[in-house]
Amino acid sequence: MSVQKEIKRITTHILQEMKMDGKKISMLTAYDFSFAKILDEAGIEILLVGDSASNVMAGHETTLPITLDQMIYHASSVVRGVQKALVVVDLPFGTYQGNSKKALQSAIRIMKESGAHAVKLEGGTEIGDAVKRILSAGVPVMGHLGLTPQSIYKFGTYSVRAKEEMEANKLKSDALFLQEIGCFAIVLEKIPATLGEEVSKSLHIPTIGIGAGGGTDGQVLVTHDLLGITKEFKPRFLRRYMELFDEIKDNVQHYIQDVKSGDFPNSTEQY
After folding, report:
1. Beta strands 25-29 and 207-210: pairing type?
2. pLDDT tens for residues 15-59?
3. b or e along 184-201 (b: 16 or more beta carbons within 10 Å of the residue's beta carbon)?
4. Cβ(118)–Cβ(12) below 8 Å
5. Interval 65-110: pLDDT, tens
6. Is residue 152 within a helix (H) or strand (E), and if so which, with residue range?
7. Residue ranges of the domains in the chain?
8. Confidence label for 192 from pLDDT (cuts 50, 70 and 90)
9. Which whole number is the average pLDDT over 183-196?
10. Is 166:213 a contact under the CB 8 Å cutoff?
11. 12, 203, 220, 233: which has the fewest C-beta neighbours closer than 10 Å?
12. Residue 5 pLDDT > 80
């Protein structure tokens, strides 16, 4: 009789141990069951149900339009495809800023209705009350500093953040603040590599970088960017591992030709 190997789930505690042991953490986005299953079986440690679904799944220009109900739908789909990875869900714009009670209600809805394992919020001291309130309910929180896409209209650009000393110092103090109040990890987005490394070394919780250099404790990319399903987005930090847009398009055109020529289905492909 074959003994099925027990799958060890990734927890916030395991991520902490990985940082202490100097082991890098891998994280990717997922928005549906099929992709989540593939990424989980590949061995990814963290799956982020990102509000980037607003861009890559719904075609919006920014992350702002996506709703809490839509995030819960995507998160539920991802959770059903996962056996090992830690599933983190973005709290979308308007569900936590300036209202800690609403933030808690939003986080609880995500956890109860999707079965996810943690939530992620953008910002530092200005969202401290929201983070504390969510943590008080036992919900793990991942922070997010640097380029915060939900604040795009405030900054007016997606360019590198914290190049100036004042903003860099604020980011460093915000990172320590988020650690102090209980966040289990922090995403650092599009900041100078030297700052990414400095912040990572100053914290005992893991940092996950995206365009923050190799000195962070882990890396995250949008899966659709990594696989080349999206074509327009070409930042310096993105490494494309495939060009699926072109590959899928070519094969669909092949299918269309086969249908029109009568080649598909052939005699072995029918009953």
Report:
1. unpaired
2. 999 999 999 999 999 999 999 999 999 999 999 999 999 999 999
3. bbbbbbbbbeebbbbbbe
4. yes
5. 999 999 999 999 999 999 999 999 999 999 999 999 999 999 999 9
6. helix 152-155
7. 12-240, 244-271
8. very high
9. 98
10. no
11. 233
12. no
For the chain, give the percent of residues with pLDDT over 70.
97
In 10 A of CB 226, how many CB atoms? 17
The residue assigned the tokens 């060890």 is 8
Q: Which of 26, 113, 27, 132 is nearest to 75 (CA)?
A: 113
What residues are annotated to the active site?
189
Q: Which of 4, 20, 27 is nearest to 85 (CA)?
A: 27
Joined tokens for residue 159: 């360019």
d(CA 230, CA 163): 28
Q: Which of 45, 48, 36, 49 is nearest to 14 (CA)?
A: 45
Q: How many whole angstroms separate alpha carbon 163 and alpha carbon 269? A: 60
Listed residue (103, 98, 173) closest to 131, CA to CA: 103
Q: Within a 10 A sphere around the Cβ of 65, how many other Cβ atoms?
A: 16
Distances (CA, A) of 268 to 97, 219, 259, 263, 264: 59, 46, 15, 11, 10
3-state SS class at 117: coil
- Unique residue bearing structure tokens 């593939």: 38
CATH for the stretch 12-240: 3.20.20.60
